[in-house]
Structures are given as structure tokens and as C-alpha cells.
């Protein structure tokens, strides 16, 4: 499943990032990498951006970037 399919309050583990090296490096600098858990904190209207929390870092992710992040939802 893709990050873009999640909604506010969902938790997930990052499985894979299907992006070029520059974007993967940028994500990595924020702690967004394979094996990390994230929490969807909110979404803008029409889901153009998502606010996610990875560790103690809050990050805004664009819709096209969220499509490139494969996750596995964690049921809590």
C-alpha cells in the first residue's frame, strides 16, 4: 500500500521508497527510511499534502512524494 492511501491517525512501517537518489537522500535526512514507523498527523484538502511524524520529526509530504513511499499499515 502507498502512503497516500492512509488517513489521519493511521500508523505504518515504511517498506520501500520508489524514488530517485536525490529524493531518497532528502527523505533520509528527515528520518524517512525503510523500517521506520510513521504516524499520519493530518492531510490537507484534496490530500495535496500530508503531515507525517517519524520519530519526533514532523514532515509535510506532497501527494506525488507520498505515492512513492510503500508502507505496511500497523493496526493499533
Order of helices and strands: EHEEEHE
Kindly report the CATH topology: SH3 type barrels
Q: Report low-confidence residues grouped into runs of 5 or more.
A: none
Give the termini separation.
Answer: 17 Å
CATH class placement: Mainly Beta
Spatial order of strands in the largest sheet: 4-3-2-1-5
Radius of gyration: 11 Å
Fraction in helix: 10-25%
Shape call: globular
Largest sheet: 5 strands, antiparallel
Number of structural units classed as domains: 1
Report the portion of residues in β strands: 35-45%
Q: Kindly state the number of beta strands.
A: 5
The class by helix and strand makeup works out as: alpha+beta
CATH architecture type: Roll
The number of helices is: 2
CATH H-level superfamily: Ferrous iron transport protein A (FeoA)
- Global mean pLDDT: 95
What does the model show?
This protein is globular. It has helices at residues 21-29, 63-66; strands at 11-17, 37-43, 49-54, 57-62, 69-74. It is 17% helix and 42% strand. It has 76 residues and is α+β, with helices and mostly antiparallel strands. The protein has a five-stranded antiparallel β-sheet. The protein has two helices and five strands.
How is this fold's topology laid out?
Elements: E1 11-17, H1 21-29, E2 37-43, E3 49-54, E4 57-62, H2 63-66, E5 69-74
Antiparallel strand pairs: 1-2, 1-5, 2-3, 3-4
Amino acid at each position: 500500500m502507498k502512503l497516500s492511501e492512509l488517513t489521519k491517525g493511521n500508523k505504518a512501517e515504511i517498506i520501500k521508497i520508489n524514488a530517485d537518489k536525490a529524493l531518497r537522500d532528502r527523505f533520509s535526512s528527515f528520518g524517512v527510511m525503510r523500517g521506520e514507523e510513521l504516524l499520519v498527523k493530518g492531510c490537507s484538502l484534496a490530500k495535496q499534502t500530508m503531515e507525517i511524524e517519524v520519530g519526533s520529526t514532523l514532515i509535510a509530504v506532497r501527494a506525488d512524494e507520498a505515492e512513492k513511499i510503500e508502507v505496511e499499515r500497523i493496526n493499533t
